[in-house]
Each structure stands twice: as C-alpha cells, then as structure tokens.
Design goal:
The protein is α/β, with parallel strands linked by helices. Helices cover 47% and strands 12% of the residues. It has 13 helices and eleven strands. The strands form three sheets. Strands 1, 4, 5, 6, 7, 10 and 11 form a seven-stranded mixed sheet that branches. Strands 2-3 form a two-stranded parallel sheet. The chain has a two-stranded parallel sheet with strand order 8-9. The protein binds zinc ion.
Length: 313
Amino acid sequence: MQSSLTIVMYHYVRDFARTRYPGIRGLDFAGFRRQLDYLQSHYRIVRVEDVVAAVREGHALPPDAALLTFDDGYAEHYNLVFPELYERGLQGCFYPPVAPIRDGVLLDVNRVHFILAATLENPAQVSERIDAAIEAADPALGLQPVAAYRADWAHPNRFDDAETIYIKRMLQTVLPEDMRNRVAQDLFAQFVTADEPAFASELYISTQQARLMQSCGMAFGSHGASHYWLNRIPRAVQETEIDTSLDFLREIGAPIEDHWVMCYPFGGWNEELLDVLRSRKCTLGLTTEVATADLSRNDPLLLPRFDTNDFPR
Ligand SMILES: [Zn+2]
C-alpha cells in the first residue's frame, strides 16, 4: 500500500535575467524547469484530488508520488509557473492569502523580503533602525530591551543568517502589530518604493487570474487572509481568517464543499486552529516541517513538506 508522498514547496519563481529586484532570493525560472524535469523523472506528480482520495478512501498513491505546492499568490505563479505546468499536463496547488490578491495589500512578509533585497550588502542599516525604534518606543508598549530581543531572535536557521532572521522576526511577528507595520512601511519607502499599492498590484496574481488557473485544472487552497502566524492569534481571529479565505476560494470557483486544503502561513498551527479546520471540514493541512509525508501515519492536517532548495535545480 503506497502511502508516502513528497510535497514540494515553492515561493518566488522568477525570471532573474529580467527582474528589477535581483536581490530577492528565489528560484530562477530556468532552474524551475530543470527541477520539473528532475521531479518528473524521479517521481510521479499527483493531483491534490489523488491525495484526498488516498486519505479519505484509502486509495493507493503511485510509487514515488509527489505534489507541487506554491505559496503566497505571486504574479509569476500565473505568468511563468501556470503555463509551464499546463503544458506539461501537471497540476500545481496554489495557496494565495486573500488580502494581497483581493484588496491589493502588500504583506509584511513581502515588504521585509524587498527591504532585505535592497540592503543585501549591509542589513545592519535596517536592524539599527529597528533597534532605534524599539529604544524610542512609548514605555506604555512594555517592550523589552534590544539586547533581550537579540538574545531571543538573532539566531541563524538553514536559510538565513542571524541578522536577517532578527530583522524578519522583529518585523513579522515580535513587535506589536501597529509598530512593526509602521517601521516596515518607513523602511520600505526608504529602500524600495514609496508607491506600495502599485508595487503590490505587480507582485501578486489577481482574482481573475486565480479563477482562470482554477478553471484550467490548477488547485487552490487556503493560506488565510492576512498571512498571520495562525498559532499566535485568538480563536475568533483564526475563524475570521479561515472563513474569509473560504469565501475567496468559493469566489474563484474552487470546489471547497467537497474538499479543501489548508496551507499554514509560516507553518504556524495549534490545536485550537485544527479544531477550527475540522469544524469547516478541511481535508489536508500543509506544514513547513521537512520530511516525506506518510499518509498512513501523519495526521492529514499536518503533512510535512520539502522546500524547492532540497532538490536539484
Ligand atoms: Zn506564505
């Protein structure tokens, strides 16, 4: 009985020869095509419907099954990835957060990526400004001293150095939301562009593009609405995040009454969230834990995924 599944996670897939932002770290389109060649020769790329049937009805997956997933709804998922997959007869599974796609909001996470891309040679000019904002903050906010934040958060992971992680964490989750938004917006205006709405409209797919991809056999699932760490917000907000994303999926014609997939922003989940997902009949959940999924052993709401960097390109 085949139950193992290799899930591959993609974010930015760009044509780096043409981009205005060469500092963004992502997969070059030529590398993506080579990686698809590799994956197609070593794996059988399955559709999300096959995985749902395997979980629900115990159908076997083919040997060496793999699933392709794309997070965050970037414009190149429509411009580059979709035509390439379509031509190869493959399905991609796409997880766009609602706010950037429907409301043109630039996500904190992307604001930070482009700030970092613009300051690659000297990320300290960014972290110094964050530290200065912490030191100048209203004492009523109850912030910790800079040294305490650095001790907690300035640690490298498998992709980023300590300084970069510190900047990302402070601006994505650690500082109070109003403050980190204001600091990140100032940094973005200084280092990237003052016209955020125009930038956002270029960065993400549109609702119409999502609908077209969906009607051509691509799969869409939930990545929340505002790209929060869903494990760090109260249940009522978790419910709003999920329900808003289900409304969006309905709007683009995704068959959510039959099955739907949750892809956790930043891989963040907790028991309360799983409870919310079960109450809305979620079928599969995708984490960022790194392993081959085993459908006979994993909780279907907590399937691990590899990153594109874990495979040759
Ligand atoms: Zn994401």
